[in-house]
Task: inverse folding
């Protein structure tokens, strides 16, 4: 009986020793974040994090805020950070007719960082069939970006905000 | 089964479990997939091949590279015969001078910038008042405190010392021997007599000199285009991380350096500006850097934006080889707004640890001071500081400094 208790104590002691040694061994691998998960979590939220709010609509084809137009965009190439590039914006009426002679302005930025676009993009050309050339697009970091278009055609003005989540 | 064998079996099971757990943790990747994506964007292997500069058709001509290199180090191209581009951009110091304010024939109001990798940048100088390497090179040559010369003075030097080199790249050098048409010293510079002499020249003769002057810049740019950072310890580490080669990773960076890297791409927010394989977005940021009291007011990009629009050698100028459409950065630049106030260009962080003192006027002597500044993010004296306080502790800040040392590498130059 006494012998058995001794063995149990021995096993518990051994387990404890192995656990402690394992933890010490693991520290350099996991880093201090593992030791202070609460602190790591707090730091993320304090800096606004790098993650965008959940539930954002990242669709590249959307209806404008008041439903006047159906709008989609396509980038000339895959969007690369710090590369100036060109978009094509397609504008249709709600019932699918291409919109011609629209006046379109571009704005945007990073809501979490309080800065705008690094460039001043412009619609420079009407390509026909409701397509507009947007030149001067640029994003200088990864993360959540907004690109806003203000569209006026036939005395109707409506706005749309596209969300982008860029890698980098 | 005896008590003894039960005990042994139990112990055995425990050892297997612990070993298995340890094995799992030691072999699991040190970085998340999202972090690996970020690391890859910073890796020098992600640097795309350098596109030709549409504004400089001679940019990749080997004869222009050689000619430009000679000009870069020729001190005759200065008012006192002692200043060349290489005086402030010393190859042995990573093409900078280690001084808070650059010293030419006088003292400038800003720190000399490093050159490596700037061929990728749409903007030159701390305020981006030039939009190509060749246009940039022409600024200091006519600055009263840098080279202190004037463009006819330089054109005559080309005719005297570099006629063959010039003509091999740019074609026949116009005849400048008539000193009544082409004065010894004339240019749109601060010196009044040189300026008066310039204004007295005929528009056609000024145009002739401007063309030679622009070509000098294009030759210097051809040389500067090839000044590039090479792979650093950080790059070796990232390549190993992408290949999941933990042995090389562990042999390349210390735990402290890895922790610094983790902070750099995470809570320290460094990659908001210092991103991409050159660790810069080549854009302008107000980070609340203090002014130097003895210097005149410096509004940074606010002034630089107006400067580049008015620059007689910008991408849209007659001296540029680009089609107007190819000047997208200039055509769609942000020309005004509060965001430009006291915004200065983010320099590359490659080799940064060998480039003290730091910031646009050498305000901070150590990287610790720089990081303390970013950590506390004081209000800017004009405009708005983009940063928020980081509240990192000293161990963490030291880890970031340790990480920055892993970005050091040889600089390749022709």
Result:
């Amino acid at each position: 009986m006494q012998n058995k208790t001794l063995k149990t104590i021995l096993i518990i002691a051994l387990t404890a020793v192995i656990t402690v040694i394992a933890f010490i061994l693991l520290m350099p691998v996991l880093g201090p974040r593992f030791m202070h998960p609460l602190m790591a979590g707090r730091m993320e939220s304090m800096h606004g994090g790098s993650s965008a709010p959940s539930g954002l609509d990242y669709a590249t084809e959307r209806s404008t805020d008041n439903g006047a137009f159906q709008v989609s965009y396509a980038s000339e190439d895959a969007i690369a950070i710090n590369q100036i590039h060109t978009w094509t914006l397609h504008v249709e009426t709600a019932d699918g007719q291409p919109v011609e002679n629209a006046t379109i302005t571009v704005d945007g930025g990073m809501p979490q960082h309080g800065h705008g676009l690094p460039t001043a993009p412009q619609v420079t050309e009407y390509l026909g069939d409701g397509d507009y050339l947007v030149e001067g697009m640029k994003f200088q970091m990864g993360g959540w970006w907004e690109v806003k278009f203000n569209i006026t055609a036939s005395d109707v003005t409506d706005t749309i905000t596209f969300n982008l989540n860029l890698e980098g | 089964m005896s008590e003894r064998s039960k005990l042994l079996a139990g112990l055995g099971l425990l050892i297997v479990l612990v070993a298995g757990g340890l094995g799992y943790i030691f072999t699991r990747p040190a970085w998340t997939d999202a972090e690996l994506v970020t690391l890859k964007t910073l890796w020098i292997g992600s640097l795309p091949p350098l596109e030709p500069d549409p504004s400089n058709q001679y940019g990749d001509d080997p004869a222009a590279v050689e000619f430009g290199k000679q000009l870069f180090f020729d001190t005759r191209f200065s008012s006192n015969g002692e200043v060349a581009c290489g005086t402030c951009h010393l190859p042995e110091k990573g093409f900078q001078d280690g001084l808070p304010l650059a010293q030419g024939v006088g003292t400038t109001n800003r720190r000399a910038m490093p050159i490596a990798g700037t061929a990728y940048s749409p903007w030159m100088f701390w305020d981006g008042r030039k939009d190509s390497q060749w246009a940039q090179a022409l600024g200091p040559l006519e600055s009263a405190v840098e080279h202190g010369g004037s463009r006819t003075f330089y054109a005559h030097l080309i005719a005297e010392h570099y006629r063959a080199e010039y003509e091999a790249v740019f074609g026949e050098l116009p005849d400048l021997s008539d000193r009544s048409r082409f004065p010894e010293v004339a240019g749109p510079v601060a010196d009044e007599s040189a300026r008066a002499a310039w204004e007295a020249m005929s528009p056609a003769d000024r145009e002739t000199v401007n063309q030679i002057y622009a070509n000098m810049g294009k030759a210097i740019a051809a040389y500067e285009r090839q000044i590039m950072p090479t792979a650093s310890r950080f790059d070796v580490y990232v390549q190993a991380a992408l290949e999941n080669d933990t042995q090389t990773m562990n042999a390349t960076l210390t735990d402290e350096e890895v922790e610094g890297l983790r902070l750099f791409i995470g809570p320290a927010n460094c990659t908001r500006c210092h991103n991409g394989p050159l660790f810069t977005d080549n854009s302008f940021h107000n980070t609340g850097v203090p002014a130097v009291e003895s210097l005149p007011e410096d509004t940074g990009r606010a002034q630089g934006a107006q400067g580049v629009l008015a620059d007689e050698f910008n991408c849209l100028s007659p001296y540029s080889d680009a089609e107007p459409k190819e000047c997208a950065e200039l055509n769609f630049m942000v020309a005004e707004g509060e965001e430009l106030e006291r915004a200065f260009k983010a320099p590359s962080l490659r080799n940064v640890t060998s480039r003290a003192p730091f910031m646009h006027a050498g305000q901070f002597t150590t990287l610790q001071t720089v990081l303390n500044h970013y950590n506390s993010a004081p209000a800017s004296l004009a405009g708005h500081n983009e940063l928020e306080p980081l509240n990192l502790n000293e161990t963490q800040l030291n880890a970031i400094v340790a990480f920055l040392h892993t970005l050091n590498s040889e600089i390749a130059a022709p």
Observations:
- The CA atoms of residues 138 and 362 of chain B lie 23 Å apart.
